[in-house]
Amino acid sequence: MHQQQQKEAPKQCFFCTTNRGVIDYKNSELLRQFMSSQAKIYPRRKSGLCAGHQRSFARSVKRARYLALVPYVNR
């Protein structure tokens, strides 16, 4: 019949728990932790970031892409 899906416990925001103030766009290794192999930004439900840090993270990724520190698309 129907299988019930178990809900995952909400993840704690990485940047809130590690007390990192500002997300630096020059730290490409940190940015890639929250991006897929195709260089897409993970959604909040998958990355576990809070709303404020998700917006700040997206802004940092867009700056890094503009400066060619992180690719727009991996093929």
UniProtKB/TrEMBL annotation:
Name under which the protein is recorded: Small ribosomal subunit protein bS18
Keyword tags: Ribonucleoprotein, Ribosomal protein, RNA-binding, rRNA-binding
GO MF assignments: small ribosomal subunit rRNA binding; structural constituent of ribosome
Gene label: rpsR
GO terms for biological process, alphabetical: translation
One Gene Ontology term, aspect cellular component: cytosolic small ribosomal subunit
Alphabetical list of InterPro entries matching this protein: Ribosomal_bS18, Ribosomal_bS18_sf
Protein family membership: Belongs to the bacterial ribosomal protein bS18 family.
Native species: Candidatus Sungiibacteriota bacterium
Subunit structure: Part of the 30S ribosomal subunit. Forms a tight heterodimer with protein bS6.
Superkingdom to which the source organism belongs: Bacteria
Pfam families cross-referenced by the UniProt entry: Ribosomal_S18
The keyword Cytoplasm appears for this protein: no
Ribonucleoprotein is among the record's keywords: yes
Task of the protein: Binds as a heterodimer with protein bS6 to the central domain of the 16S rRNA, where it helps stabilize the platform of the 30S subunit.
